[in-house]
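Lecture 7 notes. Example A: sequence first, then its structure tokens.
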Amino acid sequence: MTIVVTGATGNVGRPLVSLLAAAGARVRAVTRTPRAAGFPDGVEAVWTPDRLPDLLAQSDVVVLAAPHTPETKRLIGPAQIDRMKRGALLVNIARGKLVDDDALIEALRDGRLGGAALDVFSQEPLEPSSPYWDLPNVIITPHTSGAMKDYWTPLVALFADNLRRFEKGEPLLNVVDKVAGY
């Protein structure tokens, strides 16, 4: 099985890539800033976003783990869905605005895509009238893909460490790049 993961160097993508590669999947990583080192064994290739159309045509599963930026808004729309393998699966654990909902719903209804697992939506909470609820080839989860056991302990530790750093005038950890948008 060939899987493409967007946002493969991020906090969500990197552990996912490791798990998929360890499970024997052929993983192709897409990242805005490819690095020669730092990917787990088993990653077949690291590609830049401009190569995504080629990867869509070759992949059985497309996993979205990229941040929402102006460049990734509607990353998957009608043209990208038309490039995907017939029967491919789409998994969105990133941001809802990466997907054109109307195009995805149409492709799921007519069988071009085999299914979707969606943890995020362009509008949250997902409206009760959303067609996603009635599609038998869609798995819906309540925006919990980033949840982990004991989420608050490391978060509070990071905050406390950054507070100490701030008081000492030291560089902070996990700072958002306002130019990149994440």
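Example B, a different protein, same format:
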Amino acid sequence: MYGAFINALIAFVSIAAALFFFVVKPVNALMARRKAGIPADPTTRECPECLSSIPIAASRCAFCTEKVAPAA
């Protein structure tokens, strides 16, 4: 009984450690590297009426058809 429990515990810890070091750590490193890049210029803005995302050059909202002022 004790041997089976210790065997299962060792197997669980070793599999969890392998997953952590071979999957979680590299993915976190890639995501951190991806976030560190220079942010691009925004291509959208919010409609003042319905707060949906519209292109910067739009003169009318596609969702609520409200006329919007040109972007500054």
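Note on Example B: The chain has a mean pLDDT of 90. Residues 44 and 56 are 5 Å apart (CA to CA).
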